[in-house]
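A.,

Following up on our hallway conversation. C-alpha cells first:
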C-alpha cells in the first residue's frame, strides 16, 4: 500500500497493490495496518458503509458533517471512474480553503481518507460509477450540510466536456464564503480533538 499526503492537512491518498490473473483480480482497497501507520491511532471505527452509483456527469457535494459530532470517511471507486475531491473547510486549519483531488477507477482502486470536518465532492466520469465509503458515524440528516460545488472562488476540477448533473440540494447550496460568514463551518481544533478520540489516540 502506497500512501501520499494531499494538499489538505490530514487528507491522504492510498494506492493498494492489485493482483490480476486469468480469473480477474484481487485487491484490498482499505488495509488497517497501513491506515494506522499513516494516520495514527489504534483503529478506524466503522459505524456505517455507503454505496452510491452515478451516471457520467453527476457531481455530488460539497458535503460535510456538522462538528460535533463530526465524521471521518474512507472512500474508493469500486466500478467506473471519478475525480474525488477533498476541500478544507475547517476554520483555523493551516490549509483552509485549499482542495486536492484523486483520480479513482477500477484499475488502481485508489482510496482517500477524509479527516473529520473536511468537505467531500466527486465527479463521475463514466456511467455506473460506484463509490464505496466507510464512515466513523451513522447518517443523521440534521447533521449533513452542503456547500456549492461550483463555487468559482474554489475552482474545483470539473473536466471540460462534463455538464454537471446536480441534486436540488447541491444546486441551492451556499458558497464557502457565505458559510464562513454565517459561522456554520467546522472548527479545525475541535475537529482534530474529535478525530483523535475516534481513532483511539495518536
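Then the amino acids I'd put at each of the 202 positions:
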Amino acid at each position: 500500500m502506497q500512501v501520499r499526503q494531499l494538499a489538505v492537512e490530514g487528507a491522504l491518498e492510498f494506492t493498494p497493490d492489485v493482483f490480476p490473473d486469468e480469473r480477474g483480480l484481487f485487491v484490498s482497497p482499505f488495509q488497517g495496518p497501513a491506515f494506522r501507520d499513516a494516520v495514527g491511532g489504534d483503529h478506524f471505527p466503522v459505524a456505517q458503509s455507503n454505496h452510491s452509483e452515478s451516471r457520467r456527469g453527476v457531481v455530488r457535494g460539497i458535503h460535510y458533517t456538522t462538528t460535533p459530532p463530526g465524521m471521518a470517511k474512507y472512500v474508493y471507486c469500486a466500478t467506473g471512474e471519478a475525480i474525488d475531491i477533498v476541500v478544507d473547510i475547517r476554520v483555523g486549519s493551516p490549509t483552509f480553503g485549499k482542495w486536492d483531488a484523486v483520480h479513482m477507477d477500477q484499475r488502481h482502486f485508489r482510496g482517500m481518507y477524509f479527516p473529520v470536518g473536511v468537505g467531500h465532492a466527486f465527479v463521475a466520469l463514466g456511467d455506473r460509477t460506484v463509490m464505496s465509503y466507510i464512515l466513523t458515524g451513522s447518517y443523521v440528516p440534521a447533521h449533513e450540510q452542503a456547500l456549492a460545488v461550483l463555487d468559482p472562488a474554489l475552482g474545483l476540477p470539473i473536466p471540460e466536456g462534463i455538464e454537471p448533473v446536480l441534486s436540488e440540494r447541491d444546486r441551492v447550496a451556499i458558497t464557502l464564503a457565505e458559510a464562513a460568514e454565517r459561522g456554520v463551518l467546522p472548527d479545525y481544533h475541535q475537529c482534530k480533538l474529535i478525530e483523535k478520540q475516534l481513532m483511539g489516540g495518536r
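DSSP finds four helices and 13 strands in the chain. Curious whether your intuition agrees with the design.

B.
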